[in-house]
Amino acid sequence: MQRDEQIFDLILDEQDRQINGLELIASENFVSDQVMEAAGSVLTNKYAEGYPGKRYYGGCEVVDIVEQIAIDRAKALFNAAYVNVQPHSGSQANTAVYAAVLKPGDKILGFDLSHGGHLTHGSPVNFSGKLYNPVFYGVDEATGVINYDTIEEIAKREKPQLIIAGASAYSRDMDFKRFREIADAVGALLLADISHPAGLIAKGLLSDPLPHCHIVTTTTHKTLRGPRGGMIMMGQDFENPFGLKTPKGETRMMSALLDAAVFPGNQGGPLMHIIAAKAVAFGEALQDEFMHYALQVQKNAQAMASAFVKRDYKIISGGTDNHMMLIDLRNKNISGKEAENALVKAEITVNKNMVPFDDKSPFVTSGIRVGTAAITTRGLVESDMETIVDLIDRVIMNHTNEEVIEQIADEVNEMMSERAMFVF
Ligand code: PLP
Questions:
Q1: Pairing state of beta strands 162-166 and 107-111?
Q2: Going along 152-272, which residue ranges are E strands?
Q3: Is 49 known to be catalytic?
Q4: 399 is in an annotated binding site
Q5: CB 284 within 8 A of CB 32
Q6: Nearest residue to 84 via CA among 303, 342, 265
Q7: What is the DSSP string of 79-116?
Q8: 63 and 43 Cβ atoms separated by less than 8 Å
Q9: Cα–Cα distances in Å, from 38 out to 31, 76, 111, 264, 341?
Q10: What integer pLDDT is reported at residue 123 of this predicted model?
């Protein structure tokens, strides 16, 4: 068969873009060669509906072992009693959890998308906002930080069945213990979605949700630095609170409800090549080098935040505890969309993002979100953050000046083109 040059040329173009540019999208990272190798392996050929030892297809002896290793490594990494590594994405992990613990029309309390939450936490344009009845908490306008007393007030007033702690654009640590007290006070289940900071949580650099939250979901491809995918965990299994019994009359455990909600509830065959790549990534994250990586991600984010503040950029909440920050550009007279477009021309990739109490639409926005997970993988350290912020500032200050932007793109290429994709 003829090689598909059209697609492989495009893949090479994308590889050049990733190598030569500055990747500051907070949800992206670069995987190691062995994660990539597993993701591109013959395991993509295998159907394996079901779970290790209980499949609906023959020939699953090898992939059973692979999936079990992925589960065991994730359990060790997060100190979890239960893990399901099959969700194809973070959104599907959340879909499965909702299906396991909610009925259509039930109330969910999530972080407002426009304040930093995720689409799947109840946004009206997402299934979570259509199928369930969403109410929201956000950040305080003055501090940019979530206020637990306000969340408690909302929870007591609204009485949700499920509270979701977690965000896509929130730079502060979360108090999961306090969230659990609120959930207990109103009889709600508590889900933590740690998609963004999972890698930092795994290494103990941020608060651990597993002892406090009933269920925890994550993506595997952000700070955790695995292949694109999702995962569901529990610190401890528990009897389902809905009185559901097995055919034998035994009470069903939450682990059984979650497994059934993933398969057959929401997915068919698991992506065994991706599960193998997850296993490799979890193996990497269990090593000491990953601790150095995670610490450097955090240090870089802090150095970057200080460099922005020094140049009079307004970071929501004033700084960062994790790998990212949300910057309100309103005092710089540029929209998030204009900033994103100008930065892309300079080969600096960020995404426009709503800021809390934004007066612009989600297509325009007043802010950008910036993260350090990917550039840290490429070996950049604190001293490079000054340079990067200087480049970003020059683009923003000269966003209509094509000549200056071209010059900055050259500087970005010079800084990045000789660096390996995976240094650290
Ligand atoms: N949850 C949070 C908090 C996220 O930030 C994201 C992705 O950005 C997701 C869920 C969804 O992940 P995916 O894009 O894999 O569906």
A1: parallel
A2: 162-166, 189-193, 215-219, 230-234
A3: yes
A4: no
A5: yes
A6: 265
A7: T-SEEE---SSHHHHHHHHHHHH--TT-EEEEE-GGGT
A8: yes
A9: 11, 21, 35, 25, 34
A10: 95
Give the pLDDT score at 373. 98
Q: What is the pLDDT of residue 119?
A: 96
- Is 362 flagged in the annotation as binding? yes
Q: How far, in Å, CA of 366 to CA of 34, rounded?
A: 39
β partners of residue 349: 23
- Looking at residue 241, its pLDDT comes to 93
The two three-digit tokens of residue 15, written as one number: 């590889």
The answer to whether the beta carbons of residues 1 and 189 sit under 8 Å apart is: no
Cα(79)–Cα(202) distance, integer angstroms: 9
Residue 193 Cβ < 6 Å to ligand 1: yes
* Cβ 368 vs Cβ 353: under 8 Å: yes
Look up tokens 């020059």; give the residue: 394
**Cβ-based burial of 59 (10 A; exposed 0-12, middle 13-18, buried ≥19):** exposed
Cα(270)–Cα(52) distance, rounded to whole angstroms?
Answer: 11
- Dist. CA 54–CA 391, nearest whole Å: 54
ipTM of the complex: 0.99
Residues sharing a CB contact under 8 Å with residue 105, sequence separation 6 or more, in sequence order: 131, 132, 133
Q: What is the model's pLDDT at position 213?
A: 98
The answer to pTM > 0.95 is: yes
CA-CA-CA-CA dihedral for 141, 143, 149, 150, to nearest 10: 10
Number of neighbours of residue 95 by Cβ within 10 angstroms: 25
In the structure encoding, which two tokens stand for residue 214, read together? 């009933």
Catalytic: which of 28, 37, 49, 237? Answer: 49
Tokens 């503040």 belong to residue: 309
228 is catalytic: yes
193 is catalytic: yes
The verdict on the CB of residue 27 being under 6 Å from ligand 1 is: yes
Catalytic site residue from 217, 218, 219, 349: 219
Cis bond before residue 241 (omega within 30° of 0): no
CA distance 114 to 121: 11
**d(C-alpha 220, C-alpha 290), whole Å:** 14
Q: Which two tokens stand for residue 144?
A: 């940019």
Q: Are 233 and 74 in contact, with CB atoms under 8 Å apart?
A: yes
> What's the pLDDT score for residue 348?
98
What is the pLDDT, as a whole number, of residue 424? 81
Ranges of the chain whose pLDDT falls below 70: none
